[in-house]
Structure to design on (278 residues):
């Protein structure tokens, strides 16, 4: 019965002929097996060794060496692109991150430009959202680190103390802003507040808000701090006028303006040390 059903699938008048396998082509050689069964041919094909997998694309050896250099010799032993490359290991597990790092440095003008770029700019440069967030959060974590470190030693007894705290306030900030440190009689910082935000070139000093903040904190003295993202530490005429206005207004409520610091990068200028307080 099985043979009759098989014959039904053949065109009428044609005789059934067994398959002729002839030559079976593999990756690198031919197998001639006219006398072999299909099972035998498949077995021989199965036994042909495959090309060994190339694991070089995983870059595991290079990653281990770079990571070891950092652990043994510190970040100063790495070039900027290697620092960024190492960071990207943790967000891009299976790609060579060296060309990605170099492209980012070229596009944003250096490591500082990459770290200051927005998440949208970084994803626009080809990073995944995860990688962009990882890069973008670093300077924000630096700010938190400085604030956390200062929380244990927030006594200001010198310009150097004030400068150290002030520089940590503006890490990688691209717009001008005014901040205010309110101190008690012992020199302890009882409040640190942002008073105003501006743009890359200027910021307005709200004198009334400065006075209200000092009163609300029950401050005995105050230090004003603002940044110059452009790099100069020299006070402008507007900076000096704002300083004098703030000092006069604070005097009326019995609060002393100790200093006004201008911050750029990790450096600062004290207007008191420069002689602007008379």
């Amino acid at each position: 019965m099985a043979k009759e059903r098989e014959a039904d699938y053949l065109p009428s008048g044609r005789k059934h002929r067994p398959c002729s396998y002839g030559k079976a082509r593999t990756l690198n050689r031919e197998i001639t097996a006219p006398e072999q069964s299909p099972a035998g041919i498949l077995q021989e094909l199965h036994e042909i060794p495959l090309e060994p997998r190339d694991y070089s694309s995983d870059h595991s050896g290079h990653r281990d060496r770079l990571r070891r250099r950092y652990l043994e010799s510190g970040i100063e032993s790495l070039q900027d692109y290697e620092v960024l490359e190492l960071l990207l290991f943790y967000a891009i597990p299976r790609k060579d991150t060296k060309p990605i790092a170099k492209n980012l440095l070229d596009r944003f003008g250096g490591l500082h430009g990459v770290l200051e770029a927005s998440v949208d700019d970084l994803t626009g440069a080809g990073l995944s959202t995860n990688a962009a967030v990882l890069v973008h959060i670093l300077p924000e974590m630096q700010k938190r680190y400085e604030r956390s470190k200062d929380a244990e030693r927030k006594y200001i007894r010198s310009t150097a103390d004030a400068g150290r705290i002030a520089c940590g306030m503006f890490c990688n900030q691209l717009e001008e802003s005014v901040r205010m440190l309110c101190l008690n009689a012992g020199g302890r910082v009882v409040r640190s507040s942002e008073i105003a935000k501006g743009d890359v070139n200027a910021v307005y000093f709200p004198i009334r808000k400065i006075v209200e903040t000092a009163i609300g904190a029950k401050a005995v003295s105050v230090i004003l701090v603002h940044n110059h993202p452009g790099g100069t530490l020299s006070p402008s005429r507007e900076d000096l006028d704002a300083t004098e206005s703030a000092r006069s207004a604070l005097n009326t409520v019995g609060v002393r303006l100790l200093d006004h610091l201008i911050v750029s990068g990790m450096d600062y200028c004290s207007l008191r040390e420069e002689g602007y307080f008379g």
Q: What stands out?
A: The chain has two domains: 58-146, 155-270. The chain has eleven helices and seven strands. The two ends are 118 Å apart (CA to CA).
